[in-house]
Amino acid sequence: MDGRVTISELEKVYGEGPERTKAIDDLSFDVEGGEFVSVVGPSGCGKSTLLYLIAGFLDTTSGTIAVDGEPISGPGTDRGVVFQDYALFPWRTVFENVTYGLEESGVPKEERQTTAQKYIDLVDLDGFEDKYPKELSGGMKQRVGIARTLAYEPKILLMDEPFGALDQPLREALQDQLIDIWDDLGKTIVFITHDVEEAVYLSERVLIMTRHPGTKKTVTEIDLDRSGSREDIVTSDAFAQYKNAVWKSLHEETQTEVTL
Amino acid sequence: MGHATSQRIETLPAPLQGIVQTIFDWIPLGILVVLWEFASGTFVAESILPPPTIVLSRIVELIVTGDVFSHLFISLFRITVGLGLSILVGVLLGIGMARSKPVENFFDIFLSMTYPIPKTALVPLAILWLGVGTETAILIVFLACLLPVVLNAYNAANDVNQSLVWAAQMMGTSERAMLFKVVFPATIPEIMTGIRQAVPIAFVALVSAELIASNQGMGYLILTSGQIGNYPRMFANIVIISAVAFVAVRGFEEARNRVLVWT
User: Fold this and answer.
1) Residues of the domain holding B141
2) What is the CATH number of the domain that holds B255?
């Protein structure tokens, strides 16, 4: 399946001389095509840096990132980012935000409109097409963000704590919506979060990163029976065990932070 | 006080609220006019402070005879061209400086040096180069309005949210197209703020330039009325240009609010 991300011996250094800090050190990790992987780690572990490196917004210091075997060089429409701060264009309506990527790829107007409408409907925003971002709540803005990124049909979704600013019920609703979208569209998803429960609930694998410089600490496979409701899943023993395992591993890192 | 008033206004039916608020807004001016009428001929000699009633009759006279219009139009023409040029150059320069280090380095020193100079101090120099008349007035208006436009555009273009640029990049926007697709639209609210600051400055600069270096325009009319001792006519012209400036500012604010529905 398309959308495989291969990260080899990745290193990212910010600044020079005495300002020099290593954000990511010797990280190798593969994400399979169509897989849902969450990345958790203590704050400052470089998880957002990792996401922006995969997106191509930042240059690697050494090592490579490849998509389906092709090393990346800068941003590309095969990858789509969903930003923590939504990053919607405030001067464009919901509809115009969602069509932006299609305009840039030269899709004809009529096709743009059908495609945009399809994804607006998918995130339950029909009726809000002509609203400006400032008229929307945080949860609605992030749904526009998701629709905008899905609309130009990237193979890989890169999500940077997309639900971090939302309250619990809304987070849960959007998590379930995201799972439905993932089931329907079969995208590769790399999902950054600091919320262990969110990571376990959503993903097939959780990558736990070490604290500063960030590198791979452990990878936990999450093999949950997801056929039931949210309540069935989060109250199951298996869910609790996975959550504990990830939490313990992460906690060791935050402990180091405190003793330092 | 204001609070108490607005609370009482809120108890009125909606269409009346606006009217009542407008009346409240104009009360201070009304008080001033009444005091002026009273002071003229009592505390201050009528010859140097003509009462508002006489000034008003001169305003009507200036409008009915049409004497004022040729001067008013030439003044408005100078303002429009000077301000228009300052917006065009200011936006290009501001965004250019924010996006390109060489452009910033080149122009920064000029802007820093000219910033504290009152632009009207350059009128004599402008006369030397351009003579007495429209070109000089336009140049002074242009120079006076340039800085607020440049600075607002520059700061805003420097502060464009990085995630907006990244979002456009990931959807295929090239570095070149980024200017028009993201940087410019993101900068529009601050450009509007710069223009809002520049409009009253334009009137100040224009009238100052016309007082010194013109044979036409409202500034010229004010000066010559004073020189021949026709103070009611001088006051009438001052009131006319003030009213026009006021309408220009309010009109611009209205237009800005319509353009910026998304902010």
Assistant:
1) 55-259
2) 1.10.3720.10
Q: How many CA atoms lie within 13 A of A139 on its CB side?
A: 15
Each residue's pLDDT tens digit, A227-244: 778 888 888 887 788 888
Identify whether B224 is part of a domain: yes
Set of chain A residues whose Cβ sits within 8 Å of the Cβ of B261: 132
Q: What is the total count of domains within chain B?
A: 2
- Look at A132 and B261 and tell me if their CB atoms are within 8 Å: yes
Q: Between chains, do B163 and A87 touch, taking CB under 8 Å as contact? A: yes
Residues of A in contact with B263 (CB under 8 A): 90, 134
Tell me how many residue pairs between chain A and chain B have CB atoms under 8 A apart: 64
pLDDT of residue B112: 86
pLDDT at A44: 73
Tell me the pairing of strands A21-31 and A36-40: unpaired
At B6 the pLDDT is: 56
Cβ(A151)–Cβ(A99) under 8 Å? yes
B230 and B127 fall within a common domain: yes
The shortest CB-CB distance from B171 to any of A74, A133, A152 is to A152
Q: Is residue B45 part of a domain?
A: no
Domain-located, residue B50: no
Please report the ipTM that was assigned to this predicted complex. 0.90
> For B33-48, what is each residue's pLDDT tens digit?
999 999 988 888 888 8
Does residue B81 sit within a domain?
A: yes
- Mutation for testing the B interface, residue in A79, A100, A155 having most B CBs under 10 Å: A100
